[in-house]
């Protein structure tokens, strides 16, 4: 019985590299026995299938890590991250800011440096 062929064209480059790495980690005696056995290449096919699945898990873990941060997460994760930090959605419609932010934005955008901060800044010596 011959092993099921794994088409190298359908394997991702990461899975192919992982299969080669796993194959090189196997002891030489097992690689020789696989080449000389009654169904040569069976172990290599098994290693390629394992590498393909390990690549899927690795990609999923990378995406889960990206979803931990609001800047890099997928769109469906945003409400869950907002719920974790107890953020309230803005209830105003349109492009106007909420009323409580209007005063702060107009004061801080004047450019005169006063903004919402006190005039005396002990850390700057003024």
- The share of residues in helices is 40-55%
Number of helices: 5
Structural class: mainly alpha
Secondary-structure element string: HHHHH
Distance between the termini: 87 Å
Give the CA-based shape: rod-shaped
Q: What is Rg?
A: 29 Å
How many β-strand runs? 0
Strand content: under 5%
Major sheet description: none
What number is the mean pLDDT? 78
Provide the low-confidence segments as ranges. Answer: none
Concise summary:
With about 130 residues, this protein is mainly alpha-helical. It has 5 helices and no strands. The radius of gyration is 29 Å and the shape is rod-shaped.
Task: List its salient traits.
51% helix; mainly alpha; 126 residues
Characterise this structure.
Helices cover 51% and strands 0% of the residues. The protein starts with 12 loop residues before the first helix and ends in an 18-residue tail after the last helix. The protein has a domain at 13-81. It is built from five helices and no strands. It has 126 residues and is mainly α.
Give me the secondary-structure topology.
Blueprint lengths: L12 H13 L2 H9 L5 H25 L11 H7 L14 H10 L18
Helix pairs in contact: 1-3
């Amino acid at each position: 019985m011959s092993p099921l062929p794994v088409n190298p064209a359908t394997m991702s480059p990461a899975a192919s590299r992982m299969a080669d790495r796993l194959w090189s980690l196997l002891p030489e005696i097992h690689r020789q026995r696989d080449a000389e056995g009654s169904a040569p290449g069976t172990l290599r096919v098994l290693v390629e299938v394992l590498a393909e699945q390990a690549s899927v898990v690795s990609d999923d873990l990378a995406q889960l890590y990206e979803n931990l941060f609001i800047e890099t997460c997928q769109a469906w994760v945003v409400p869950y991250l907002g719920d974790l930090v107890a953020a309230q959605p803005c209830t105003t419609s349109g492009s106007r800011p909420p009323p409580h932010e209007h005063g702060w934005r107009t004061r801080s955008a004047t450019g005169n440096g006063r903004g919402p901060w006190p005039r005396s800044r002990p850390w700057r010596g003024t």
